Every structure is written in structure tokens, then in C-alpha cells.
């Protein structure tokens, strides 16, 4: 990669970092391109050379997060101790990452209820997360690294649902203690992946005769 390409990547990273801080602090609607330019220490005109709108900035943030997630899940495909590696990955996103990332997620989800762009971003991201988890779960089952025999997609949806709730709690509850609460959640998810939770279909009782 040449010097010019590296400079462009570095500049985009600088802008995205600045935008993320602005969105967390003031929200998407109250943040202006001028705010982002100021936080990135550049002129608005220069900012528009990289991102033509706030929606484009958010698309850039989503693309960056997708790339990070893809890299993390790719590593899970090669590990020999799947459960330990998965717990480590969970700790990364729920303990090591700053609370501001959870707040940004909440901001995006709120916008997704009223913006077609944000709805598309959110839907695509969720589908990618579930798809990648389904793949690594299926591969781990095939390699004998996962005791659960449940459908990989069902497992992935449930883990994603729990994770989303955890992001909300971490964002809105000021007393949230990640070091105390996260291990309990990871233990629950671990029990599901270890086959200790029954995923067999729940049969409905037959209706009583009239």
C-alpha cells in the first residue's frame, strides 16, 4: 500500500473516531458536520472530501465495525479451545470496550426506528453477526469443540439477543458493573454452548375437549 493510500486511511480513521465521540456526546441529530470537522481538527470542506454527509459517516463507522467483527470471528474458526476463545471475545466487547461504544449502539438503534438508512445499517449488521456466529458454531460442532447439538442459527440468534440486552443495560444503567455482571452472562452463554440448556422444541399441550 502506497503512502497516499495510508494517509487516506489514517485521515478516515481520524474522522470516524471524532464522529463517534460526537455522536456519543450529543447524539446523531444534534451533531453537525461542523462538529465532526472541529473534533477531527480539519476544515468542513476537507471533511466533505472523505464523507459527503453524516449518513455516510455512519456508514463508515458500520463498515469499520463489520471489519473488526469479521476478523474476530475468523480467528474463532481456527482455535482448538473454542469455549475459552469465545469467552475471551465476549469479554472484549462487553468489558474491555468503553461504555461509549454501547451508548453509540443505542443511538444507532434509536435512529433505526425512524431512518431508512439506519434501519438498513442495523439490519445488515445484525444479519452479519448472526450469520458469522452461525458459521463458527456449526464449524465448532463439526470439529467436536462444541457440545451443544442445537441448531447453530438458533444458538446465534439467542446469543445475539442476550448481547443486545447487555449493550442496552451497559449504556443506560450508570451503576452497571461490567466486572461483576459480565462473567455471569458469559457463564450463561457458555452453558448454552456446552449443551447444558435444553433447546428441544417446546410442545404445546393439546386443547381440552369442549
Explained architecture:
With 210 residues, this protein is mostly helical. It has 2 domains: 1-52, Homeodomain-like (Arc Repressor Mutant, subunit A, Orthogonal Bundle); 54-193, Tetracycline Repressor, domain 2. It contains 9 helices and no strands. It has helices at residues 3-26, 33-39, 44-50, 54-76, 82-96, 99-112, 116-142, 152-172, 178-193. Helix 2 (33-39) packs across helix 3 (44-50), helix 4 (54-76) runs parallel beside helix 7 (116-142) and helix 6 (99-112) packs across helix 7. The radius of gyration is 20 Å and the shape is elongated. The chain starts with a helix and ends in a 17-residue tail after the last helix. The model has no long low-confidence stretch (mean pLDDT 89).
Per CATH, the superfamily of the largest domain is Tetracycline Repressor, domain 2
What CATH calls the topology of the largest domain is Tetracycline Repressor, domain 2
**CATH class designation of the largest domain:** Mainly Alpha
Cα distance spanning the termini: 76 Å
Helix content: over 70%
Main sheet properties:
none
Number of helices: 9
The fraction of residues assigned to DSSP E strands is under 5%
Counting DSSP E segments of at least 2 residues, the number of strands comes to: 0
What structural class results from the helix and strand content?
mainly alpha
Radius of gyration from CA coordinates: 20 Å
Low-confidence runs:
none
The geometry reads as elongated
- If you average the pLDDT, what whole number results? 89
Proper CATH architecture of the largest domain: Orthogonal Bundle
Order of helices and strands: HHHHHHHHH
Domain module tally: 2
